[in-house]
Amino acid sequence: SGRFEKKKREEVMSAGTVTQMRHVSKNPQTRRIGTRAGPSSCFQQKQAAALSRRSGRFEKKKKKKVMATRMSRKKGEVKVSSSAPESSTRVSEGAQAGSQYFQDDKRPVVLFDGVCNLCNGGVNFVLDWDVAGKLRLAALQSEAGKLLLERSGRRPDDISSIVLVEQNEAFTKSEAVLKIAEYLSVPFPLLAQFFFPLPLLIRDTVYDQVATNRYSFFGKTAECRLSDKRFDDRFIE
User: At what angle do helices 173-183 and 188-195 cross, to 10 degrees?
Assistant: First the structure.
């Protein structure tokens, strides 16, 4: 009887151990983690890889921009944003073109299209209202006009816009028109102050439309107006 009870207890203990081991092996929390990553770990790895690729592309683009900037500086090119119209140019201190026209006379020079009827009408208007003689005039097609265009940072053959050339600065398009008005007699300086607050983009857009169609609307003369005998001291050639 004693040996029977002892054998029974050993069998019960053995069965309990096997059952416990099966339970442990079926529990997912106690299984050994293998080399294969779970879903969350895979997602994190994909995110890291995507960020790495984006960072690489960004660095590549940045290097290209730096190289392009260096090349443009070497070539002496200056890029101007097209979103903002350029209507004024600062004349560099070392600018030589047209400097002779400001050695003895510091008055600004208005550059106009010498064959345009509208421009010639504007010249007559300036002569009538600039009683004090604060402004000088020159045709864009004249030698003086070409040199002063170059001084203003424009091509010598560019006659697309009126230009006001001061000793240290130049103005084009609507900015030039309003600056010229400031030199005239009253009430035009006041009118200029009224229009200056308007956005430059709007003013220059209106100016471009008129300037582009000036020959169609107003015609042109057969000869270029280079001077006027009544105002010899006001014109430069």
Answer: 150
Mean confidence (pLDDT) of the chain: 78
- The closest alpha carbon to 169, from 152, 146, 148, belongs to 152
55/67 Cα distance (integer angstroms): 18
Query: Is the bond preceding residue 187 a cis peptide, omega within 30 degrees?
Result: yes
132 half-sphere exposure, CB direction, 13 A CA radius: 7
Residue whose pair of structure tokens reads 């100016």 in the numeric block: 207
Residues 6 or more apart in contact with residue 28 via CB below 8 angstroms: none
Per-residue pLDDT at 32: 47
pTM of the complete model: 0.62
Q: Which residue has the tokens 């600039």?
A: 130
Query: Which residues, at least 6 apart from 170, have a Cβ–Cβ distance to it below 8 Å?
Result: 88, 89, 91, 148, 151, 152, 153, 163, 164
Rounded CA gap, 21 and 188, in Å?
Answer: 103
Per-residue pLDDT reduced to its tens digit, 66-102 = 666 565 444 433 333 333 346 666 655 445 677 899 9
**8 class by beta-carbon count within 10 Å (0-12 exposed, 13-18 middle, 19+ buried):** exposed
Sign of the torsion formed by the C-alpha atoms of 154, 157, 161 and 167: positive
